[in-house]
Amino acid sequence: MLLTSDAATACTAAAQGPSWERARELAHAAPLPLGARALPLAAAAGTTLADALRTRDPLPAFDTAAMDGYAVAGAGPWRIRGAVRAGAVWDGSLAAGEAVEISTGAPVPADARAVLPLERAALSGGRVSGRTPLPGRHIRRAGEDAPAGAVLVPAGTRVGPAQLGLAAACGYDTLHVRPRPRVTVLVTGDELERRGRPGPGRIRDALGPLLPPLVAAFGGETVAVEYVSDRPAGLLARTVNAVSDCEIIVVTGSTSVGATDQLRGCCATPGARMVVDTVACRPGHPQLMAGLGAGRWLVGLPGNPYAALVAAHTLLAPLIAGLSGRTLPHLPQAPVSGDVQPVAGLTRLVPVAWDGSSARVVGGHRAAFLHGAALGDALAVITDGWADGSPAPLVPLEG
Fold this sequence. Notes:
Blueprint lengths: L4 H12 L3 H10 L7 E4 L7 E2 L3 E2 L9 E2 L3 E4 L5 E7 L13 E5 L11 E4 L4 E3 L2 E3 L9 E2 L10 E3 L7 H9 L4 E5 L3 E7 L3 E2 L9 E2 L2 H12 L2 E8 L6 H8 L5 E5 L10 H4 L6 E5 L3 E2 L5 E6 L2 E6 L3 H20 L8 E5 L9 E8 L4 E3 L9 H5 L2 E5 L8 E6 L3
Parallel strand pairs: 6-7, 14-17, 14-18, 15-16, 18-22, 20-24, 23-25
Antiparallel strand pairs: 1-13, 2-13, 3-12, 4-11, 5-7, 5-8, 6-10, 9-10, 19-21, 21-22, 23-27, 24-25, 24-26, 26-27
Helix pairs in contact: 2-7, 4-7
GO molecular function, one term: metal ion binding
Organism: Streptomyces chattanoogensis
Pfam families: MoCF_biosynth, MoeA_N
């Protein structure tokens, strides 16, 4: 039977797997988020908020001096009644024509009209003079930044320095978070050298050093990097089955259909299910993701370093986001210029130098060559409708 051109294209697309965009969506949607736990602030960096971060009290909690100077009542000159410093409270009351010396961050007396900055004040004989400030000037009013109970940071936000500082400012000692997914990396390939310059017929392993910091940038935690020989047959499956202290097992190499490619055999065990089997993209086509049951996930990356980097952004990053309870990141777009040939039915991912407004293709991005990625800021997602200078989605390269 002869196939029409449309039918032939459909068969080819099926053999190539889902589109790059669809593969990302499948990887993100497959897992349930990890269970939440309470962690002290010192241990919460890199985790993901399971609950929204809310104010417990108004911010600021009291009327606060925004500058060093004098809290004044009425018009000047003003008689100085005392002083109030940050961390203390002045219990008196001010009448018109009176003032207290005040430090930045100190509570402002209730009767004060405004704060006269120190550099605009003249002091003489227990009195201070200066141009009368407008009402409320240099005072941060209680609740001015946020009222009590306000959502400051939504659930699903990755916890970084600013979130930790804000939580502390709100009076939190712990946060309810989802932990970083744990990852074990299994590097396959009998041709790999792990140190020094490789000899004849050998190549230096690039993925053992590359993947742990990339996993960390995605929001995961690498618990081990192990090297697995291509022989004997079945060794990879036994090694995968023996891993028990993580949510994700990443295997590099062994994703194709050659004599030494054993990864698909690991997906034929009871309880396993294939989520993505190859992706219609270049490079990185022979990649896969499978559920192994009991909350464990297998991600297969190609052995070629640049192809593996592309595949990690395709499947591993969305999987970690899904396990963390974070949304699938929206990809920014920018005009992309450079010598790239789109391929019908495939997505090409090429490194680009991106200045925030436009992007330029960086050379040196064959499947085994990381030069372009090392110089670039992002991966441009090039589909068959793209033309030189037209917009394309960008995947920021984690650094």
